[in-house]
Amino acid sequence: MSLDENATTTDKEPEVENFDLLHRYWSAANYLTVAQIYLQENPLLREPLQVEHIKPRLLGHWGTSPGLSLIYAHLNRLIRRTSAEVLFVAGPGHGGPAVVANTYLEGSYSEVYPAVGKDLKGLRRLVRQFSTPGGIASHVGPATPGSIHEGGELGYSLMHATGAAMDNPDLIVACVVGDGEAETGPLEGSWKAPSFINPLRDGAVLPILHLNGHKISGPTVLGRRSNTAVASLLEAHGWDPVIVSGDDPTLVHPALASALDSAYASIRAIQSHARTEGVTGPARWPAIILRTPKGWTGPVTVDAMPVEGTHRSHQVPLAAVRENPEHLKQLEAWMRSYRPEELFDADGRLIAELTALAPDGDRRMGALPASRGVGSGDLAIPSLDRYALEAVPRGGVMHGSTKPLGEMLRDIYIDTAGDPRFRLFCPDETNSNRLGAVFEATDRCLLEPAATTEAALADDHVSASGRVMEVLSEHLCQGWLEGYVLTGRHGLFASYEAFAMVSASMTIQHAKWLQHARDLEWRQPVPSLNILLTSTCWRNDHNGFSHQGPGLIDTVLSLAGTVIRVYFPPDANTLLVTAEHMLRSKDYVNVVVIDKQEHPQYLTLEEAREHAAAGASIWDWAGNETSATTAGKDPDIVLACAGDVPTQETLAAAWLLQKHVPELSVRVVNVMDAMVLPPPEAHPHGLANEKFNELFTAGVDVVVAWHGYARALHQLLHGRSHPERFHVRGYNEQGTTTTPFDMVVLNKVSRYHLVMEALGRASGQFAGADQLLEHCRSQLDAHSRYIREHFEDLPEIRDWVWTQQ
């Protein structure tokens, strides 16, 4: 279509329609938004506005709110005309008062919060609770009905909307993208959604890019771009945009209504064609570019400075109403300009003719079942016996630990083919992470045309029907999964360990969402956000320093214990048991850390289940404390480990100690669930002190080989008896392109370093100790020389396997 720089309508003539009632509904939402920001009393201005009616602290954001309410009101109109199932995602950060106002007007807010009733008493409570102690925050967070998206940290709205639409064929997700938010990297990547939304099986995403021109104190990039340029940007990403622009409500209302009608017709036509004729490529999904003034209908000027249409309307346009009589007078005039006496009846209820504009029942956007996490039910997990590895001889079987998980995920895809409710999300690393068995059941999803060569198809398991979501963006993978699970489906995000830090802030925000959502009885528990960290720091010896970083562990361990879990399965069978648990769990952020390379396998499936249930166990077979000479006594030293490579090095250290210093009593403890380590008051999984001391004793020194940064483990041990006796070795930012064993040597977590630490910490003198110390130093020197000459590890390192002493 041709784009007029001054367009106020779409290319389709709007039908003749009276928008007076809709405009008044919009006015009611704007009025309640202002009231929430400013008032603590006199919610409908039934008496002249006084200083004592104003909150002592004015918090909140006005600038984006009129646009959000305008869109919400028009979506209500669309829903009433079509009975469409519409999920509303508000991207602009602090649009909370507008969305709360609209859910209150439609009645969904009072249903979940009966104390905020649809009368004058309820209105008073509505305004008093906003941004006040014991009340609600200014974001569209978990406490806001209809929301699956926290609007605090910007950039994630469109990816959440896309994830919500996946495998939700009847759903339309209307996603408002603010022009400030559009400057973020995650949002910029999100425009690629048309390449991944399959109209045959997915719902639709309707982006509404709201250009009001300004951020908190300056202009926005897209706000200053021409309509043609902005439309071209969206077109290049595969969207079919239309423009609605203006500051005259009499023109904007019919233009926006026409744009939404056209978008809905286009969405249904795309879906109908795909569901009858099939999919031949990416659809040209509709999008709307809405350009209206920031802070529209608010104060035009304040203290002789322009406000409406500028950054000065972003937060509280009249900031001194308690101190400045002119500001108070101007606020009252602003609020009365909406004519609240014509919008609400004598009892403080929205008048009937405006109430009738809202959809009914579950079609209200604040009451949509999908927004509460009502999805497609629990996920059936195949029997793990199909995939379990034989671990005989113990430690002597080498196998890629993530491969059996890939086989399990393959069968979940097969089992849910008729009722899709599971997806794997991975940034172009599914095969690399040894999960490629899933491609026996499905393909990578991409709706772009297939690539060919003269000889054969160049693509490997790529099709529009694929349900493995690979895109080279950790943000998109995690954001799609978050939208997917928050609307009740199940999934897994697999990432190289170091690069999961790209989306670490998203993990924090999701955990905060879950933490608050748990306190809301009206919200359904949702499937957990499951993050698999593989290609870990210890085995990125081939990729180098940039790929070596376990930082997400630290990030997650600092979050609320009610919602976070961190697992270090040491082998394939323990990983299977962990995956079974996390895919069945609800309301958690589960982080699982295990390497993709071949590693020794230690436990049978039955042993893996017992170990997982305990979270940490004494591996009697690996130590020697149960011999006749030490029975009933504490060991001389405890070797503890968490993670597959630290486990291997710990077992090798225990083997060396028992071989060379047999009189030394050694206990080996493997920690699979990191959250058993803190005291129970710090985390629900925390072991009681008695049980903790059964594992680690009450006073014996403990040498710990830890997968991540040592400081993270010290943090967990705070509050335990004599935490100073735990001597933790972990990754300490030493790395390069080198051999696998050199990585543990560089970070002083090798078997030789562990042995030397253990001998230095064990009390008493033991025959053979001095010789073993010399052997360790000699081996480290030999290692350094050998790898520089032969470019691989010493044979005695490469070929070592656990054997019973």
From TrEMBL:
It holds the Pfam family XFP_N. Its EC number is 4.1.2.22, 4.1.2.9. Residues 596-802 form the Xylulose 5-phosphate/Fructose 6-phosphate phosphoketolase C-terminal domain. Residues 18-372 form the Xylulose 5-phosphate/Fructose 6-phosphate phosphoketolase N-terminal domain. Its cofactor is thiamine diphosphate. SUPFAM superfamilies: Thiamin diphosphate-binding fold (THDP-binding). Keywords: Lyase, Thiamine pyrophosphate. InterPro entries: THDP-binding, Transketo_C/PFOR_II, Xul5P/Fru6P_PKetolase, Xul5P/Fru6P_PKetolase_C, Xul5P/Fru6P_PKetolase_CS, Xul5P/Fru6P_PKetolase_N, Xul5P/Fru6P_PKetolase_ThDP_BS. One of its GO terms (molecular function) is fructose-6-phosphate phosphoketolase activity. Belongs to the XFP family. This is Xylulose-5-phosphate/fructose-6-phosphate phosphoketolase.
